[in-house]
Amino acid sequence: MAEQDWKTSKRTFAAVSLPTLFWVVVFFLVPMAIVWLYSFGENRGLTEIEFSGTLENYKRATEWLYLTIFGKSFAVAALVTLICLIIGFPVAMAITFASEKWRPWLLLGIMLPFWTNLLIRTYALMMLLGTQGFANKGMGALWEGTSWIKTLVGLQPLPTWEPVQLLFNNFAVVFGLVYVHLPFMVLPLYAALDRLDRSLIEASLDLGAGHFRTIMRIVVPLAAPGIIAGVMITLIPALGAYLTPDLMGGTDSQMIANVIERQFKKANDWPFGAALSFLLIYAMFALIAIQSMRKKVPEVR
Amino acid sequence: MTETAKPIIQIQNVSKRFGKVTAVDNVSLDINAGEFFVLLGPSGCGKTTLLRMIAGFELPTEGRILIDGQDMAGIPPNKRPVNMVFQSYAVFPHMSVADNVAYGLKIAGVKGGEIKDRVAEALDLVKLGGFGERMPDQMSGGQRQRVALARSLVMRPKVLLLDEPLSALDAKLRAQMQFELSELQEKVGITFVTVTHDQDEALSMACRIGVINKGEVAQLATPSDLYEYPSNRFVADFVGSVNIFEGKLTLDEPDKAAVDCPGVGKIYLNHGVTGPHGADVWIALRPEKIYLHVPGEGKAVRAAAQDAPDGYNFARGKIKGMSYLGDITLFEIELESGARIRVSRPNLSRHDQEDFTWDDKVSMHWRADSPVVLLG
């Protein structure tokens, strides 16, 4: 069987996998290992780092100040993931049950934001949310319209519109992260729901369940693999988010990635930055380990 | 079969169109309480659409469906007194067998203790007692189907709908389930409505069969009437195997009729048909109703039967094809005109299949009550 050769012949297998292996080792594993070694090092001068094997950096990284930032990053990432799930699930269901004609267009709509650079999308979002942005102007126009109608019917007009601070705070960070990560949630959910046997839903309805109960008792449990995939694929990048809190956050909304960035650049403390980075990586490993230990939902057929 | 022929389902002038495609075309039929009714037809004939309209998953474009006298318009599937066994069984894979069967009862608000009793009773009914704790992925296809059956029967519906219930089972299991389903239906007394494309399944299980063709009811009859007295060429051809000859009606009296079939011969019937003289008709003749003889012998045998005048119900030909199926042997015989006739012959003794072979000259005869005259 010629087409099976690559599985059995070690040489073919090596030829196919070597370039990728080379790429991963040289450009990912080796730099990661260097950073990992740095985390056990000490600064000696501006650019020199001595690998002294100290655990001092990890000790500092687990100080209360940094732990609260870790905790806050988790909280923000978890909130973002939850909001993405709540918004994304109905969207994924709508796409799944849309007619054959519409489905590719709806999927394209979900993927469309990927065609634009994240930085540009973030600036666009900032224009939308700024005090002089479209959101505030729109609300202001509605406010004044309401005020005008009230004067028409002889009521006191509303006080003057004060623009709402939508940007440079925690709200803006969560909003921005949800905006960026929503497609990551919708796509695995759609993949899971699309595989669902429609007759399971019909069987539930047939046995007397309403639509809401059918979704909660049949659709959600059976879409669990997709929900977990969506949660992981949203939670992990959101946890390491750097650009959105940097541009859209206020002074109190820095996340762990912003702290790490500062160590590598302004503070020029690479060993400490490396220790913080690896704490974050260990946390993500733990998440993935927990996820892979959960009981698999048995699949029929 | 049924003591009270009261219709539990009344389908009245129902049509269903999907865009420009008419799936069901002005169908009217009544299904009686307590009967085993089968909708039979080729794939794409609209039989499944009809079943799904009874269940409420599709809405009729026109007409109405009454269940137990109540108009089902505007009543969603979860409020209808019917339950369905799906073609894929649709057993919930994340619930144990017992939880699957209890699902509908819990929603209906049945008390815990009663649920337990009814689930156990339903599982016993489908011979799955003691399987309650199993997960569906630990069960075979046949067992999963029994779970689906128990899950529907436990709801005590007025009508149980079954969509191609046996199509996914292997031949042996299918034959066994045909018996079991009939037995089960008699035991629980619930009206069963089954959809199938398999005529054996329909003939063996049904009290009555509705043959559906291109969205319309082609014939509504008991299994034996459907087979022995098909009312049109579609039914004759779809149900069982048949020879169909085109001919002209030459004689039509109350107690006898004759049809002249060019290329085949003159066919005599011992009953009248109501058709105009000289009308174009078709003759349907089942392969097992034709007797095969070595030449010369046939005429004598037929003469002894004396149920047709000389020169009628008789043909000569050459064996062009044979297939030995164990219980019977199928022959394809070419007449002098080039027309072909299919004949089946039971192998009554172990050596019967050796009586004839390829290119043997044979003669055939059939009784005067065997051919069916079809007007359309």
Report on the structure:
The complex is a heterodimer of chains A (301) and B (376). In chain A, a hairpin with a 3-residue loop joins strand 1 (42-44) and strand 2 (48-50). A two-stranded antiparallel sheet of chain A has the order 1-2. Helix content of chain A is 71%, strand content 2%. Chain A is mainly α and 301 residues long. Chain A has helices at residues 5-8, 10-38, 56-61, 64-97, 103-111, 118-129, 134-152, 170-195, 198-206, 211-222, 224-239, 243-248, 256-264, 270-293; strands at residues 42-44, 48-50. Chain A is built from 14 helices and 2 strands; from the N terminus they run ααββαααααααααααα. Chain B is α+β, with helices and mostly antiparallel strands. Chain B contains 9 helices and 20 strands. Chain B has helices spanning 47-55, 97-107, 112-125, 141-153, 171-188, 199-205, 223-228, 233-238, 297-305, and strands at 7-18, 21-32, 36-40, 62-67, 70-71, 82-85, 159-163, 191-196, 208-213, 216-221, 243-253, 256-261, 265-269, 280-285, 291-293, 314-324, 328-335, 340-346, 361-365, 372-374. In chain B, the strands form 4 sheets. In chain B, strands 6-7-8-3-9-10 form a 6-stranded mixed β-sheet, with helices on both faces. In chain B, strands 13-12-11-14-20 form a 5-stranded antiparallel β-sheet. The longest helix of chain B has 18 residues, at 171-188. Classes of the chains: A mainly alpha (301), B alpha+beta (376). The A-B interface holds A 197, 199-200, 202-210, 213, 217-218, 221-222, 297-301 and B 55, 57, 76-79, 83-84, 86-88, 90-94, 103-104, 107-108, 135-137, 144, 148, 151-152, 155.
